[in-house]
Specification:
Helix content is about 45%, strand content about 25%. By secondary structure, the protein is an alpha+beta fold.
Length: about 150
């Protein structure tokens, strides 16, 4: 379990920079979600690390492909999406499509800010990818993806 924590901290630190790209932010969120899923399914350090690696790669691909339109749509789902109910859209410029299923909001125990997790299924260049993300409100009330 210590290896898992170290790997997650390393991945998080790579994406924590204020100059992180969309892909790096997506990789961080995907790695964390993948690690959680890997641990839940495999109940071992190896499964957790595999989940983190797969989630990180998928998160990077999805995050790197999202443009301003997609980020606005994702923000709308975090703001007004019904928990457990999918919202979807297609980007008119690049043809990528997204389906997002938000979960109920909760208060982050460290920052005490409202946060929501969501499952994202993206079809990018005809390939379906699935990742998980978490967004929390910043001081200005906007949803910000977490690393």
């Amino acid at each position: 379990m210590n290896k898992m924590l170290l790997a997650l901290l390393l991945l998080s630190s790579l994406t924590a920079s204020s100059c992180a790209t969309k892909g790096q932010t997506g990789a961080g969120a995907g790695a964390i979600g993948g690690a959680l899923v890997g641990q839940a399914i495999g109940h071992s350090t190896e499964a957790t690390l595999i989940g983190a690696a797969v989630g990180g790669a998928l998160g990077y691909m999805i995050g790197n492909e999202m443009d301003k339109y997609d980020r606005e749509q994702l923000n709308h789902v975090y703001e007004r999406g019904v928990s457990g109910q999918s919202s979807s859209w297609s980007n008119p410029d690049n043809g990528n499509s997204y389906e997002v299923r938000p979960q109920p909001a909760y208060s982050d125990p460290r920052s005490h800010r409202p946060c929501r997790q969501a499952e994202i299924i993206a079809v990018i260049d005809g390939k379906t990818e699935r990742t998980y993300s978490t967004a929390c409100r910043d001081n200005n009330g906007r949803w910000q993806l977490q690393n």
